[in-house]
Amino acid sequence: MTAGRVEPGEVAVPARPVIRVGAPTERRNPLSVDLDLMSTREVLTVINEADRRVPAAVAAVLDEIAVTVDLAVAALCGGHRVHYFGAGTSGRLGVLDAAELAPTFNSPRHWFCAHLAGGRDAMWRAVEDAEDDHRGGAAEAADCVGAGDLVVGLAASGRTPYVLGALAASRAQGASTVLLCANPEAEAAGAVDVFIGVDTGPEVVTGSTRMKAGTAQKLVLNTFSTAVMVRLGRVYSNLMIDMVATNAKLRGRMISILMEATGCAEEGCRRVLHEADGDLKTALVSLVSGAEVPAARAALARADDQVRGALDLLAS
């Protein structure tokens, strides 16, 4: 077969699009150019030293993360939702973060919705072409995002078509939009309400954004969603007071939390937790305030399920 020409009996194969990405994550890291010649210990050292730079890069964008937290709190308090749209490693990290919020903070499952290019199958195997589907991302967002929602796009390069399509459609729906990426120079920065460009630089293995870029995205997502839950009153002091006790270890943790928060003995904590039908918040308010369990439960209801608000009501 001659290039550019189809001979009789042959089937033409359409050319697949090729894009050369100029993001920092695609550049070569000068500290790892001899990676394949290093000893195992040397390889591990290079990777570890590169990873140590990620927290500092995240620290540089805390102001932008803070704005995003406030937008999320406003959205959720207004009865709206937070969406993650991502592809590949970025999308899988979004799925992971959203999945862990319900058991950790007992948050309603509809609060955080993760959307992954390629669907559920892409969680377990690469469906790489799915990230190039701008229309697919836009259609998915148009189908589920509403005015007042917050949409966070996750794209290491900052240019993933599926993500940008979802962000554009979300903004058209009246949602607030955020782009989280590892490319401070991303062209899409001006097309969103908040841009979080974490400067993680070139990867140890060129272009492998499952490494530093992925680590940065996980740190940002954990920081963001945890702060949202704190602002919504699902943490008392630094204790998980809204956790779901689904196994023996977590049931034991509930007792430990009560003991830590109140200074009461284990026997008393077990008794009040039993009286509260296993509701940790009710038991906590009862033990801290000295009120009976029914009064603690009523105070929580009046305080919109906020522990400190319930304690203030009982104190007055």
Produce a short descriptive summary.
This protein is of the alpha/beta class and 316 residues long. It is built from 12 helices and 5 strands.
Walk me through what this model shows:
This protein has helices at 40-51, 54-59, 62-77, 88-105, 134-144, 161-173, 212-231, 248-262, 266-275, 280-289, 293-302, 307-315, and strands at 82-86, 112-116, 150-154, 176-181, 194-197. It is an alpha/beta fold. The protein has a five-stranded parallel sheet with strand order 2-1-3-4-5, with helices on both faces. Helix 6 links the parallel strand 3 (150-154) and strand 4 (176-181). Helix 8 (248-262) runs parallel beside helix 10. The N and C termini lie far apart (87 Å). The relative contact order is 0.12.
Q: Any chance you could write out the topology, listing elements then pairs?
A:
Layout: H1 40-51, H2 54-59, H3 62-77, E1 82-86, H4 88-105, E2 112-116, H5 134-144, E3 150-154, H6 161-173, E4 176-181, E5 194-197, H7 212-231, H8 248-262, H9 266-275, H10 280-289, H11 293-302, H12 307-315
Parallel strand pairs: 1-2, 1-3, 3-4, 4-5
